[in-house]
Amino acid sequence: MLDESQIQTESEVDVAAVLKTLENSNRVFPEDAVRTIQGQRELFIPHLIAAIRAMTAAAREGKQLNLGVHDYALLLLTEFRAKEALPAIVEAITLPGELPFDLYNDLITEELARTLAVLADDQPELLDGLIRDRAVNEFVRWSAVDAIGMLARGGKITREAAAERLNSHLLFAFETSDEDLGKPLVSVLCRLGVASSRDLVLEALTKLEFDRRFTTPDHVRRDFDAAAAGDLSYFNRLDLPEPRDTIEYMKEWVCFREDENDDQPAGVRDAEEWSDDWEQVPEPIHAPAKVGRNEACPCGSGKKHKKCCRNK
């Protein structure tokens, strides 16, 4: 929390200089600049939205994109619950092909679901539109599915209402043979564990393509049986639809660590650094897990997912 002595008046804030500090942060986390924005959120919100729109335009023009104000903006606008930013964010994440990743890297897989759950909690139809649009990047669609699960986890909607919504999308995936949509839906429906989804999810395993190393009928039955018995531990591992503190989150990024290799791309968190922590707490096998582009490929090749099975 900021005390009154840390909060500057608008006349004392050089907005352009603060934003320039974010743009030139590179290897040093600009904590003072971010803290200034947190203390003057109403002043900075329009500028953060403008930064997202500017970088979206740059992405469309094929310009090189690095860590910049737009990255901070996504997290800060989520932290501020600035719903007026949602149109600009949607415009950015619905860029064609890989452009959303060029713009936001692993924020797409790590934080976008949270952003959507926070800013679109009263616009489920917007989430529905992202989920069903095959022109949207598959991981953006997955984030929209996750957002619905998060809304149920936070009590914004009931588990049953979330399942009903996702059931309709799974039926749509059957009708359109939409493999990309089936996988995240099965994952979140298994987490919700609502009985009305059980047979539909099992049907999905026969109608849509799934990797049997990670998803089998037995795994699905186990998830739904546990929920029916009152065990919601799998559901409770969904994130709550609550924003993070941007400073606490970003200052741990690999690109801001002095001891990391200089060739680490700016703005990208290295998923491999967390592998030791994952190994210490084994996860049960459930429905398909979302694999980040820069995570180790689950096939065991040793390559990053984006360079291996993700494109197969």
Portion in helices: 40-55%
Query: Which term fits the overall shape?
Result: elongated
Helix-strand pattern: HHHHHHHHHHHHHHHH
Number of strands: 0
Number of helices: 16
Please give the alpha-carbon distance between the first and last residues: 47 Å
Describe this structure in words.
The protein has 312 residues and is mainly alpha-helical. The chain has a domain of 134 residues. Helix content is 53%, strand content 0%. It is built from 16 helices and no strands. α3 runs parallel beside α5. The radius of gyration is 20 Å and the shape is elongated. The N and C termini lie far apart (47 Å).
Keywords:
312 residues; mainly alpha; 16 helices; 0% strand; elongated; disordered N terminus
Q: What's the short story on this structure?
A:
With 312 residues, the chain is mainly α. 53% of the residues lie in helices and 0% in strands.
Topology:
Blueprint: H1 15-23, H2 31-39, H3 41-60, H4 69-79, H5 86-93, H6 99-104, H7 107-110, H8 112-119, H9 124-132, H10 138-153, H11 159-176, H12 179-192, H13 198-207, H14 217-228, H15 246-250, H16 275-280
